[in-house]
Amino acid sequence: QTGGVRYIKKSHLLEDVYTYNDFSHDGRTPGCEKKKRVTPDRRKPYLISECNGHMFPTKIFDCEERRTEHMLRHARVLDAAAGEGDIAGTFGWCMFDYNTHRDFGSGDRICYHGVMDMYRNPKPAAALFAAQQESFPVLEVTSSMDIGEHPTGNPGCVYLVTNADEVRMYRGGVFVKSFFPEDSSWKHLSHGPILIDDYIGDSIKQENFAPEQEKTVKTILNYVALHGLLHLPPRILALGAELAVRYHMKFETAYELYGRYIGNWGGEASGYRFEGFWEGRKLKTLVKAPVQSVHLHAEPDHLLLHEGSCYDVASVRIEMRDQNDNRLPFYMGPVSARTEGPVEIVGSSELTLRGGCGGVYIRTAGKTGQASLILRNEQAGETECRFTVEPDSKAEI
Question: I need a surface site. Which of 37, 145, 154, 174 has the fewest CB within 10 A?
Fold first, then answer.
């Protein structure tokens, strides 16, 4: 079947499928237009050929809130389109950032429209798309869980992006809560983002509150964790008044409890652990804790290169990671690259990581044998990728 690309509603349908770039979602509006408002012939299939993209450019080194909102915008569009029985599918704009001309982009001639950067390093939105399949496990958390990254020091709205059957969350080694696919607000997605709505769980039982008092305290503290202490709604203020009247609790006590279980201002930060389970088996674990050490991580797209009638190329994605293998999202330091053996670097050997990541390309240099790419950072030391260059059996003699 044939389709095209158009941004005009009700235009001429010359193909088999009416395709339309639906950029109607701006974060507050519905995720997509109704088919009947777009296509001139409702009997023909309809496909959304582009969405999001320039509506919310997001850099891999943007603040956490923007990177999370970028993921949520894709979730809203995908969920809305999936909920319409007469929309064949959705293509998001786009897979990765790209170079552009001087009159577009962010002033650096780069369009930050991708769910990955130009080196194919993923933004949180990429995990959303990856989670919609069940061939391999996906588990990401949209936050580093560092309170200083958020306004007023509250965790804010943090999401699990996963295709797991269950995710268990621990704080300071203490179990907090299990999250399940049905907890997602995006009901039309196979695996929608899941809001972390409880930072306390059963850990508050050590306070020995009465059952109703414990429930009310948890409700208030979790609301403040997500939305902040300022401008509390009447419902939360009423619950606070109930604690004061019925249980003689003071504001200072509540503030101390918030610091103990969520904010921890001035104290040692508590780490979080997330365990993902598929069919009862724990397959992935994420640990979010203060950075204690860093290291370079390099991931080539392939290690076997062929030299023959033309050269072969490999791309290598680079990340600066902490001791728990989390990318450092605000690391902007230099990395130097050098090669040994029959390969050479394409472009500059001096790299700058942005948002804790970057990349480099290597190519064969006319010979065969063993080769290496050595990456070095003054703080993290060296890491090495080893390649094999073989003769191309298909090369013309």
Answer: 37
